[in-house]
Amino acid sequence: MKTTMAAGTCMLALLLVGCSKNSSNDGGQVFPDPHLQISALIDFGSVELGLSSAPGHWTLSNQGEQELSISALGLSGAAAGDFAITSQPVLPLTLQKGQSVSLQLTFTPTSAGVRAAALDVTSNNGGQAGTVRSVGFSGTGFLLVAPVLSVSGNTDLGTSLIGVEASQSPSSISISNTGNADLVIDSIALSGSDASDFSLSGLPSLPATVAAGALVSFNLAFTPSQAAAHSASLDIRSNSLGIVSNLTQLGLQGEGLDVSRDALGIFFISGSPTAGLREVLEEFGYAVAVDRLWQLELFLRSGRGTLASVFGSGFLSQDISVRTVGYSESELQDAFDAFSSEQKALLEGYVAGVNRRIAEVVANPALLPFEFLALGILPSTWQVTDSLAWQALLLREFNPRSFSTAQLDNGTLLQELAAKFPADFPGMFEDLRWLNDPDALTYIPDADLAATPLTAGNVPPASYPQLPDLRIAADGLRQRREETLSARESINALVKWGSYAWAIAGSKTASGNPILYSGPQTGFQTPSLMQECSVRAGGLNIDGMCIAGLSGVVIGRTPHHAWSMQVGMAHTVDYYLEDPADVSLHRLETIEVVGGSDVVYPVYRSAHGPIVSPAPYDPTSYNPSVDGPIVAWKYSHWQNELQTVEGATELARATSMDEFEAGILKFGVSQHFTYADIGGNIAYFMSGVEPVRPAGEYRFPQPLVNPAEWDASVRRPIATGRNSSQGYYTGWNNKAVSTYGNPPGILYGPFHRAHVLDEYLSGASNLSYEQVRDLALNIATTDSFGSGGNPWSFVATDFSAAVAANPSTERDAAVALLAAWDGHFVDGPVSAWPSGTDRADAWVLADAWIREAIRLTFEDELDTATLDYQDQSTADLFNVMLHGLAGAGSGIVNNYDWFQNLANAGAPQTAEAVIIEALDNTLAALGSQPWGTGARGSITFSHDIFGPVHSMPFSSRSTWAHCVEMGQNGPVRIETFFALGQSGTILPAPTFDPHFFSYTPFFDIFEHTPFPLFP
Predict the structure, then answer these.
(1) What are the beta bridge partners of residue 630?
(2) Strand partners, 105
(3) Any idea what DSSP says for residue 895?
(4) How far is CA 591 from the centre of its chain?
């Protein structure tokens, strides 16, 4: 209630000069000494008890010739406690002639009647230090005899689905009488354009009389009618303050959300930007759970290492592996506790939505997916830490270097070569495990690199010392990894990796707009790993691809930009050979095994990370000669991967390339990103933590050769490129930049499947949307030991020259067949690429000829005591062969002549001889044409209970894709597809959801479908 001033009180506008009555104004006299003048508010008027007056402003000035020093200010008098100095200068204070300073006082009466006090100013007034000058003032307190209406309760009803009452309603609204007379309430009603979205219940009978100090209550509910922000007014008429029909209005608000699905079953969440983010993510989690509840169960158990509890001992290796290198419950909880409040809300909302669907299914068995019935279990309730555990596992699977045994395998290879070729083994090893090939294809061309190159960190030693026997550890880790992958693949819980993408600048498109294509290759599970989604509410405005269990969009587009993700190959893992004294027990994990006894597994760690070999490690019985060395797993993304949920949110909200890159820096996984935005920009970013490693030898476990420690917090700058001079960024899991050396287990050389992308785009211009989109079909119908690409183009010159020097009818015909070939494995014209059934005879010949040439080149050297040449990657050996064919002109010049055969003098001894014998052997093995009839092959979608449920012609294709053309105001064209369909639900009977196969009519024939643009 406002304060009341008595009539005749001096107005605040006069305060600077003071009121004439009782003010301390000394006229126009001249004072040779310091002279204090006070312009004051003398009467504060009438103020209701318990309330405060408006501020009164006082001015202290020096009217004397000399300096005035004010040392103290205070209040005195019988009612001094009813007044307060609420603003004053810092004391002591010096005022020169003519200077002034302001004070501010308020009056809060504690008793009725006149209340008087005085302001005491201590200064050197008149030239006498310590002089006190006082000015009296007063105010009148009064007690209002009237009812006073006060309303309390929650008037923000939160966010809810259209037609569904908000979870924060009904809200209890109370009307209290804080006055001292009866309050009479005449009416309680709703008004405003959205009044119909709110409702009242439990109202008192009107008119209602509320005695002083009493209250009445009723309920306010909110049920939105549309996906928008809603507001209304609660109108209460009463005799409050003694005023007849006094109107008190209270603002009401709430947010509506809409969740709809299109004809293909894709869900769209829409609402206003101010809708509650937690509620938006709850609907997101709920929608995913409706589509993928069984898949969610598999992912939760995969991430937690609890598959054996429902599938048996065959999954024990998987559970042990996950728990060994995974986080403890306390580590996951600590990570969640460190999240921002917004990120917590995102994850909590998502999990709440999943659990809401689980509660529905448990309450209504008719909704329970068939897989649960078959196993006799119910869905597991999700915790936020379950989502983090699954996220950690998923990101590690998307980072294939995470579990590579390459460093251990390299040690074994070196030992085998040293035993067989004591004089040549160092050079042979360098040939087979080269560090950096300048001829390797990169996302960022050298022309766009900064002047200062990024160092590789890996430095080969001057000589190799004797290595310990690493075969036990390497074989054990590899076997457990294979068991893990096989187990998860059998239940469609295995995440595979791959992906291709391209971002084309407007300078190379017909429309002048940048166009982006993203095709992640994550395997062909049943259901698909991915599903389509759209969220346009709560500050999120994004469409794209999501994965069950993750609270966000993984690859997508917004009104500002679109992006892709492809698996990167950063050096993220080093194995360390540990001393037993440096290893300690971290925790014991109890693993439940259905049909068997629980397994208590000890998890040991060193300063570097979890102990992964021996498995299990037992310090009381450890024997190096039997168990091999103690091996620790040091992962550069340790803990960093749990920040990825925040990074994904930043990608969705970015409004510039800089903001997008800031989100990339929070991704705890090595990935390539291409990007296009409304400003016409294209860009490339590589995510992941690759530490700055001191110069050393990292092709082997540490600390064997040039030992070096590294700190993941000291990270190498990520590779980035913006608006490339070549007009595009493209790749198919190839190398980021030429200055990056090969990580252990990945060897980038002249051949990489991504060459088919670069060759197409480098020679293209004026590209239509359809040409950019259909490049995916073009490259998917190439095939090789690199799962794509055309190796023949890399050897055509050398192989043809060898035949020209050694002609025969059969050899010449073979070369002629290949010369007329278009490079695609599918036989026939472009129209046959989607569904043709035959492989081109030229592809069959080229593939077999090249593979036989590789065998003849390497088999004699690489068949050793424990190794076979087929233990080596065919693509890697092909690149070594290319180095040999190029000779001194190669980016990597071989140290050893691999074409010679020292073990068999009668075998080919030159490249030419190898090529000719390989061709003759191939033609003899193939026999008469045709060779490729009916040999295209198929992609089979197999359910873990029902077996094969769908198949389609084979292509090296993506699991999902989007093609986005960015205009100046957002996407102007979006087309997508993905495998099978949106839903993975099979209900009792069994009955497949109508959207289980909804996308197959399009996906099977490589046809993209339009996706709604942003409004």
Answers:
(1) 578
(2) 56, 85
(3) S
(4) 30
- Tokens, residue 525: 């599970």
Residue type, 327: Y
Model confidence over 633-659: pLDDT tens digits? 999 999 999 888 889 999 999 999 999
Please give the backbone phi and psi of residue 943, each rounded to the nearest 5 degrees, phi first: -85, 145
Specify the long-range contacts of residues 755-762, CB closer than 8 Å, at least 24 apart: 755/441, 755/789, 755/790, 755/793, 756/732, 756/782, 756/788, 756/789, 756/790, 756/823, 757/500, 757/502, 757/730, 757/731, 757/732, 758/441, 758/730, 761/502, 761/504, 761/508, 761/727, 761/728, 761/730, 762/726
Task: Give φ, ψ of 794 to 5 degrees.
Answer: -85, -20
Residues 822-854 pLDDT 10s: 999 999 999 999 999 999 999 999 999 999 999
pLDDT in tens, 510-548: 999 999 999 999 999 999 999 999 999 999 999 999 999
Determine the length of the chain: 1015
Which single residue is written with the structure tokens 């076979």?
Answer: 868
Candidates 304, 294, 286; CA nearest to 352 is 286
Q: Which tens digits make up the pLDDT trace of 991-1006? A: 999 999 999 999 999 9
Q: 496: burial class by Cβ within 10 Å (0-12, 13-18, 19+)?
A: middle
What pLDDT shows up at residue 935?
Answer: 97
DSSP alpha helix (H) spans, 398-513: 406-420, 425-432, 471-490
Two structure tokens written together for 143: 């007690």
- How far apart CA 503 and CA 988 sit, in angstroms, is 45
User: If DSSP states are collapsed to H, E and C, what string results for 148-192?
Assistant: CEEEECCCEEEEEECCCCCCCCCEEEEEEECCCCCEEEEEEEEEC
Conformation bin of residue 523: beta by default, left when phi > 0, alpha when psi is -120 to 50: left
pTM: 0.86
Cα within 13 Å of Cα(212), Cβ side: 8
What is the C-alpha separation between 26 and 451, in angstroms, rounded?
78
Query: What's the number of CA atoms in the CB half-sphere (13 Å) around residue 61?
Result: 20
| 99, 60 contact by CB (below 8 A) | no
Give DSSP secondary structure letters for 15-73: TTT--STT-B--TT--BSS--EEEE---EEEEEETT--PPPEEEEEEE-BSSPEEEEEE
- Name the CA dihedral angle for 834, 837, 842, 848, rounded to a multiple of 10 degrees: 110
